[in-house]
Specification:
The complex is a heterodimer of chains A (about 475) and B (about 350). Chain A has helices at about 5-20, 25-45, 45-65, 70-105, 125-140, 150-155, 170-180, 185-215, 225-255, 275-280, 285-295, 305-320, 325-350, 360-385, 390-400, 410-435, 440, 445-460. Chain A is mainly α and about 475 residues long. Chain B is globular, with a radius of gyration of 23 Å. Classes of the chains: A mainly alpha (about 475), B mainly alpha (about 350).
Chain lengths: ~475, ~350
């Protein structure tokens, strides 16, 4: 069930209508049942995995809290091994088996590991990380183990964020599950506004831009430098609009139910440095990796060589989280390389370039924005393609601006790209300049009336026919 | 004097924003509902104009009907076909761009209900009509225009909620119903020539009388009648036609296969003699005899073996070096249309002689 489908509108309307008529305990029960139905519509067989992960962490967390000190670590390990095994079997096993077989073949040994013919359960990377985070927090004494299995089950399966995040912390979501929730018109309105804003990003911008991307990038050796450059740029906006659109819809849905989910994006299209990109993109994942991997490894408190290594481990993990493939690992490492370069060269650059005037500062900000956005755009080649050779060839064509068989006209740009790209970037730019994610909500009423009117007609007239799946569902 | 309560002020302003937006939306929707002709798409490619023309405007005098996707729409010329047949019968092209088996089934159903059932139906169950892809795109067209509420019980098990959602949206929102026409209205000041890239009537452009949208609309509607439903495609800027990548494997969509069989059944029940054209898929990528093509043919054979009443027309259209006359290229080669139509007529004549028509 996709957020951008008619069936979700029916499902959510039904849940919402019943939800606000019920008392608190019944609300939670309804949400749990609705979440299981929501997940079951993808593939009911994978509900077992959800129960397994929940059950494992329920028992582990209680044992960690109540057990003897000597056993606490064992239960933590049991939880981590259990969750990582689920993830490993369903997401990484075939990658591992293929590479081991290839390694053996390279060494001249005839050994072929059997491959599993299984599909990736939707949302598995999101909910396993969420449950692991909960158990680690209990182990660290930052959060008390949940005694009600239904409460923990709702935390793991809460449908607005189950299949594509945000990856919530127990300390953020569980207190909200426990707290009675009252209907608040302001919060409900803001939730609806957020949902529509996310829907606009997804069905107007991401889906339509995706059509152009798919046409150009489906035949990777047919396009010239200009077409590829635009395709890369548009792809970068497309995945942002797709994923951030989902996150906004998730937050909007939760808000209408009286919950606050964590912000997952802070306008990464306007990041001015590589480090800043990662402070704005998929925040709940980067925060998870920072708190549970990077800092425990020593973070940046362990000398420059170890810090760099920690950075590569963390970014490599972020890359592999997206999928079991070398290109995701390289994508993570490429990002780590740019960060390392920024840390190494940044201070020298700032020593040389230190504009005194506001205009000078704005100019260098603009230059920095362009440089790092182009780095981000180009990095995404490794995100899209599982063949590094294709990406290298694309870089060559873009850098040499190789003439391609596809000529590029303004009319084409306007009709296929510009009309979907420009409104989104203008609105995002407005939010960025106002430095307020709720600036549209808080704008004067005539502006907001015009915006709602425009959103309605842009989506009615230009939404892609049929509900397109979200890009991040494959992770 | 008390200071204004900020939350009340904010709430009333919020209500004003929503109220004004809603009022403007209702006004626009009423305007569209009262002037549907203004937003009707002008392009002969427009499936909406064509369906309306077939079901409500075209007098039911033609007894032969061609159905299929754009390969039929742009590839089978009723005038050339009738000339080659010289049997005094009249043909009509009911091809719809991107039509799949389901579209063809519901179009025939609606034609039968409107007392416009043909005596002979020539259809093209191409790979695109049966392959498992772009399902939603085809359904969006089909559901909104061709499916009636009375079809719900029949379609419920195949595509329930999407059908209901699209149908409801289309009935409730005139702007959604006429979205292709509205897009054209909005696009025309910026890109006045855009529609010409997609479709070009064969009727001379000198027939346009007057200027503006109304004249253009009259011209396109006249062209639809003049060409008996056919459009000649015109190849526009190449970026609009990126090389299509057929998937490695043809995998039949069970829903479309169901409708293909239902189409055969419906034609049979109403005494309509059905001919299925078996054209090659594509020369550019798969070529004749490719695994994709062979798999599609196998599916057609499977359908055919279950329905011996269907007559198959298998044109011998080999790929040529200039790639002009492949099924997927015929849209862009007006000179190829004559050849295709003559070849289809030759085969039809041959088969019709050995087929007992009801």
């Amino acid at each position: 069930m996709l957020f951008n489908s008619y069936i979700y509108v029916l499902f959510f309307t039904g849940v919402l209508a019943a939800y606000w008529l019920l008392p608190h305990r019944a609300q939670n029960r309804l949400l749990l049942v609705a979440s299981l139905v929501f997940y079951g519509t993808w593939n009911w067989k994978f509900l077992g995995l959800l129960f397994l992960s929940t059950g494992l962490d329920y028992v582990s967390a209680l044992r960690i809290e109540r057990g003897a000190a000597a056993h606490r670590k064992k239960w933590l390990l049991a939880s981590l091994i259990g969750n990582l095994s689920i993830l490993g079997i369903f997401k990484y096993y075939n990658f591992f088996a293929e590479n081991v077989s290839a390694l053996f073949a390279a060494l001249g040994w005839q050994a072929s590991w059997p491959l599993l013919n299984i599909i990736l359960p939707v949302g598995i990377s999101f909910y396993t990380f969420q449950t692991m985070g909960y158990t680690i927090d209990v182990y660290r004494g930052k959060f008390k183990a949940v005694t009600s299995p239904a409460e923990l089950a709702l935390f793991v399966s809460f449908f607005p964020q189950l299949v594509a995040g945000p990856i919530e912390r127990a300390s953020d979501l569980i207190p909200q599950i426990r707290q009675p929730r009252c209907f608040n018109r302001e919060q409900f309105g803001l939730g609806f506004h957020l949902f529509m804003w996310g829907l606009f990003k997804k069905v107007f911008a991401a889906d339509n831009l995706g059509r152009y991307i798919d046409q150009t990038l489906a035949t990777p050796f047919d396009a010239g430098g200009a077409a590829l450059y635009w395709a890369y740029l548009v792809f970068s906006v497309q995945i942002y609009a797709d994923f951030a659109g989902y996150s906004d819809m998730a937050r909007g849905t939760a808000k209408m139910l009286g919950f606050e989910l964590t912000v997952n994006f802070r306008m990464p299209n306007f990041a001015t440095t590589q480090v800043n990109v990662w402070a704005r993109w998929h925040l709940t994942l980067t925060r998870w990796v920072r708190d549970y991997v990077y800092i425990p490894l020593g973070g940046n408190q362990v000398g420059s060589a170890r810090t760099t290594l920690n950075r590569y481990i963390s970014m490599g993990l972020i890359g592999l989280w997206h999928g079991a493939n070398w290109h995701f690992l390289f994508w993570g490492w490429l990002n780590a390389t740019w960060m390392t370069l920024e840390y190494a060269i940044g201070p020298y650059v700032r020593r040389v370039i230190h504009p005194a005037t506001r205009a000078g500062k704005a100019f260098w900000m603009l230059v920095s924005w362009q440089i790092f956005q182009h780095i981000r755009i180009m990095n995404n080649g490794l995100f899209r393609y599982d063949n590094v050779g294709v990406v290298v060839e694309h870089y060559r064509r873009i850098l040499t601006w190789e003439p391609g068989p596809v000529p590029f006209t303004f009319v084409f740009w306007l009709e296929k790209i510009g009309m979907y790209l420009v409104p989104l970037l203008l609105l995002e730019g407005y939010l960025f300049v106002r430095n307020d994610a709720k600036a549209l909500w808080n704008s004067p009423w005539p502006v907001r009336a015009a915006l709602y009117f425009a959103f309605f007609y842009l989506m009615t007239l230009y939404a892609h026919d049929g509900a397109q799946p979200f890009y991040y569902f494959q992770f | 004097m008390t200071a204004p309560n900020p939350s009340t002020t904010s709430s009333s302003k919020r209500k004003a924003a929503i109220g004004f937006a809603l009022a403007a939306i209702v006004a626009i929707e009423l305007l569209i509902a009262l002037n549907p002709r203004w937003v009707r798409s002008t392009g002969t490619l427009s499936w909406r104009s064509k369906i309306h023309w077939l079901l409500h405007e075209e007098p039911p005098r033609c007894t032969r009907l061609f159905m299929g996707d754009s390969r039929v729409l742009g590839g089978l010329d009723p005038l050339a076909f009738d000339e080659a047949m010289s049997d005094g019968e009249c043909s009509l092209n009911a091809g719809l761009s991107d039509a799949r088996a389901a579209d063809q089934y519901f179009l025939l159903k609606r034609l039968i209900e409107a007392d416009r059932a043909p005596k002979t139906l020539i259809t093209d169950l191409s790979a695109s009509a049966l392959h498992e892809e772009d399902k939603d795109l085809a359904e969006a067209r089909l559901f909104v225009e061709l499916v009636e509420w009375s079809d719900l019980p029949e379609t419920w098990g195949l595509h329930p909620v999407r059908l209901l959602g699209r149908k409801a949206a289309s009935e409730l929102l005139p702007s959604y119903h006429h979205r292709s026409g509205l897009r054209e209205v909005l696009r025309s000041p910026l890109l006045p020539n855009a529609s010409h890239w997609f479709a070009q009537p064969r009727m001379p452009p000198q027939s346009i009388k007057g200027k503006g949208r109304q004249a253009q609309l009259d011209y396109f509607e006249a062209a639809l009648r003049y060409q008996r439903g056919m459009s000649v495609y015109c190849e526009g800027p190449p970026e609009y036609y990126p090389p299509r990548q057929w998937p490695a494997r043809f995998s039949p969509d069970p829903v479309q296969v169901h409708y293909a069989e239902a189409l055969i059944q419906l034609a049979s029940e109403h005494g309509i003699q059905l001919y299925i054209l078996n054209w090659p898929v594509s020369c550019r990528l798969s070529g004749n005899g490719s695994p994709f093509e062979m798999a599609h043919k196998m599916e057609l054979n499977r359908i055919g073996s279950a329905h011996p009443e269907v007559v198959w027309l298998n044109p011998d259209m080999k790929c040529r070096p200039n790639r002009k006359f492949c099924a997927d290229r015929v849209h862009f080669a007006p000179e190829g249309v004559q050849e295709w139509s003559a070849e289809a007529a030759r085969l039809f004549k041959e088969k019709a002689a050995s087929t007992t028509l009801p």
